[in-house]
Design a protein that fits this description.
The strands form four sheets. Strands 5, 6, 8, 9, 10 and 14 form a six-stranded antiparallel β-sheet that branches. Strands 2-1-3 form a three-stranded antiparallel β-sheet, with helices on both faces. A three-stranded mixed β-sheet has the order 7-4-13, with no helix packed on it. Among the domains are: 1-98, DnaJ domain (Helix Hairpins), CATH 1.10.287.110; 331-450, Immunoglobulin-like (Sandwich). Helix 9 packs antiparallel against helix 10 (205-215). It has 452 residues and is of the alpha+beta class. Helix content is 43%, strand content 19%.
Length: 452
C-alpha cells in the first residue's frame, strides 16, 4: 500500500487506494468525529488536521487522480527498466508474483469502468437578484455521466433562470452538461493508463493493449511514452492490433444533444415569445384606440347635411374640451387667423400624441392659449364652416395642416424670477397668400387632425 500511497493520504483515512468516493467520505466523517479537538481534546488535534488535509485531496476527483498518477510515476522511477533478455525474463516472473492492481471504479455506481473520465457538471440556482453555480465533480462511467448531466441540466432548467444573469448562464451550463461536461484531458489520459496497467496485472492483455493505445495519445508526454512502450511490448507478446480500438461509450447521441438544446433554449424562448406577444398586443390596442377615437371625433366630408349643428358656437379663443393647462406658470401660444374661415387649433404632445389644448379661433381674429406645460409639441389646425352638435369639431373640414417641426417649451429659473416662453403663429389657408419669407405648412389628413 505504501507504493501506491507515497504521502500516506489513504492510510491517514484508513482506506485502500482503490476505495470509492463514498468509502472515503464515510471514513473521514467517522475519524473527524473521533479526533475533532472540540470532542476529544487537544491531544488529537494534529491527527485531525492530517485527516482533513488527506480528505481535501482525496475528495476532489481531479486532485486524487493526480496524486495516484504521481504515486505511479514515483514507483516507475524507483524501479529501473531492465533491458537485457535475462533480466526481462526475471521481470516477467516478478510481475507474475506482483500484487494485482485494482482498476478505477465509477464514483457513482461503484462499478469497474474500462474508460473512466473525470467530469464536472454544473447546476445553477437563481435567487431573483443573483445566481449560484454548483459544480458536481467525480470519476464517472459513461452511463452515470449521462444521468448526472441530465439531472444537473433539469435542476438548472427548474431553478436556474429566475434572475436576469441566471437566465443567460443557465443556457451555457445546460449546453456544457449536454455535451459531456467540463473535462481535463490530461487527467483522463492518466486514468486510462492506470486501467491499462490494472488489466495487464489481471492478465487481460487485449484490453490492456486497447487502453494503452488510447493513453499513448495525449498532452502528458510521460504517460504517452510509457503507454507507447507498453503497446510495443504487448504487440510482441501477441496482442491483436486489429482490436486495438474500443467502442467509444462517451459519444454524444443526437437524441441527448437535442434534449439538452431544448432545455437550454426553452425558457429563453418562452420569455421572448411572451415579450413579442405583449408588443403585438400593445400595437393592436393602440390601433384599435386610434380607430375608435377617429370614428368619434372626426367628421368626414361625406356626412349628410341633416347632421345637428352646434347650438351655441364658442367665442374667439374659447378652449374646446378638456385641456391640460397650468393654472399659474405656463407658456403662451398666440394665434393669428389670417383666413376669413373659422379655425380649430390643437396643441399635441409629441411623446404621447394626446391633445394638451384645443381652441376655437374666429376668422380674421387673433386668440391665445395660456398655461401650456413644459414639453415638446406639434401644432395642428383645420378650417371649416359649421361645427357639429358637440361644438368641438367641424362637420366638414376644408383644409388641415400643421406647423413644420416641433415647439420645445421649457420654463427657465433665473435670479430675477421664472421666465416662460411665448410663441406667435399665423395660420395659412390654401386660398390665401403667404408672405415670401413664410415657411410652407404641412398638409395633413382629417383623420390625422382628429386623433386625440
Amino acid at each position: 500500500m505504501a507504493e501506491n500511497d507515497p504521502q500516506g493520504l489513504y492510510s491517514a483515512l484508513g482506506v485502500q487506494p482503490s476505495a470509492t468516493a463514498e468509502q472515503i467520505r464515510a471514513a473521514y466523517r467517522k475519524l473527524a468525529k473521533e479526533t475533532h479537538p472540540d470532542t476529544s481534546g487537544n491531544s488529537s488535534a494534529e491527527r485531525f488536521h492530517r485527516i482533513s488535509a488527506a480528505y481535501e485531496i482525496l475528495s476532489d476527483p481531479i486532485r486524487r487522480a493526480r496524486y495516484d498518477g504521481s504515486a505511479r510515476e514515483a514507483q516507475r522511477q524507483e524501479t529501473p527498466r531492465q533491458e537485457a533478455p535475462k533480466q526481462e525474463a526475471k521481470a516477467r516472473k516478478q510481475q507474475a508474483k506482483a500484487p494485482t492492481i485494482e482498476p478505477i471504479c465509477c464514483s457513482r455506481c461503484g462499478q469497474v469502468t474500462a474508460q473512466p473520465r473525470s467530469v464536472t457538471f454544473f447546476r445553477l440556482y437563481s435567487f431573483l437578484i443573483d445566481y449560484f453555480r454548483q459544480p458536481i465533480q467525480g470519476i464517472f462511467c459513461a452511463r452515470c455521466a449521462r444521468r448526472e448531466g441530465l439531472k444537473s441540466s433539469f435542476i438548472t432548467l427548474l431553478v436556474g433562470w429566475w434572475s436576469r444573469r441566471g437566465l443567460i448562464h443557465s443556457v451555457g451550463a445546460i449546453l456544457t452538461n449536454g455535451f459531456g461536461g467540463k473535462r481535463e484531458p490530461a487527467v483522463d489520459q492518466g486514468l486510462l493508463w492506470h486501467n491499462a496497467q490494472a488489466f495487464l496485472s489481471r492478465g487481460n492483455l487485449q484490453l490492456a493493449y486497447a487502453l494503452a493505445v488510447q493513453a499513448s495519445v495525449g498532452s502528458d508526454r510521460y504517460v504517452a511514452k510509457d503507454a507507447a512502450e507498453l503497446v510495443a511490448k504487448l504487440e510482441k507478446a501477441g496482442a491483436d492490433s486489429w482490436q486495438g480500438r474500443l467502442k467509444d461509450p462517451w459519444r454524444v447521441s443526437v437524441l441527448s444533444a437535442a434534449g439538452h438544446i431544448l432545455m437550454a433554449f426553452s425558457v429563453p424562448g418562452i420569455v421572448v415569445a411572451f415579450m413579442y406577444a405583449a408588443i403585438i398586443d400593445d400595437r393592436a390596442n393602440n390601433r384599435h384606440s386610434h380607430a375608435a377615437a377617429s370614428q368619434t371625433s372626426v367628421v368626414t366630408e361625406a356626412l349628410p347635411s341633416s347632421v345637428n349643428t352646434c347650438a351655441s358656437p364658442p367665442s374667439n379663443g374659447e378652449l374646446l374640451g378638456r385641456s391640460r393647462l397650468a393654472t399659474a406658470v405656463g407658456h403662451i401660444l398666440l394665434i393669428n387667423n389670417g383666413s376669413s374661415d373659422d379655425a380649430i387649433v390643437k396643441v399635441k404632445d409629441v411623446s404621447t400624441g394626446e391633445v394638451a389644448a384645443a381652441a376655437f379661433v374666429s376668422g380674421k381674429k387673433t386668440a391665445s392659449i395660456s398655461g401650456i406645460w413644459d414639453g415638446i409639441y406639434k401644432i395642428q389646425y383645420a378650417f371649416g364652416d359649421r361645427l357639429d352638435s358637440t361644438c368641438r369639431n367641424f362637420i366638414e373640414i376644408k383644409d388641415a395642416r400643421q406647423f413644420p417641426g416641433t415647439a420645445s417649451l421649457r420654463v427657465e429659473f433665473t435670479p430675477k424670477g421664472i421666465v416662460s416662453q411665448s410663441l406667435s403663429q399665423t395660420l395659412s389657408y390654401s386660398i390665401g397668400v403667404l408672405p415670401a419669407s413664410s415657411v410652407a405648412h404641412e398638409h395633413i389628413s382629417a383623420l390625422e387632425f382628429g386623433r386625440q
